[in-house]
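re: that chain from earlier
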Amino acid sequence: MKPTLQHDIAGRPAHGKRTDRNPPVNSPSWAKHLPVGWLEAIEAPLYFKQYSEYEIDAQRTLGYDADDQPCFAAHRFQLTNLASDDDEEFYEVVSYSEEMAAWRLRDERWLIFRAISTNTCNPPRGFYAISPDMPR
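^ sequence. v structure.
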């Protein structure tokens, strides 16, 4: 994956560190799947590194705290196959998709959200888990 520039929580290039404990407001969608009741239990990211793959539809984001330690991780990707209704014209369909977001809790464990879909007929179902380690 090719890295992009580091950005602070407002999308500006990161030049310094914030010292307040308020979670970023207008950052990449780091809190999209975070349950509201868990907001006070996590370490909020202060800046992000974003990566994207040019050969497939895949992105990865890592968020870092004031000590430059990862406190947020997310990835999303889709795999496609060629399909045809008449064996003459082909089109791409999503055959597998995955979305993951993980937040480091204040006790150093990780709250992980994962949504997986293996076909286009059923929407992905998400679930949460707690892990002692950051997902890779």
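The chain has one domain: 2-131.
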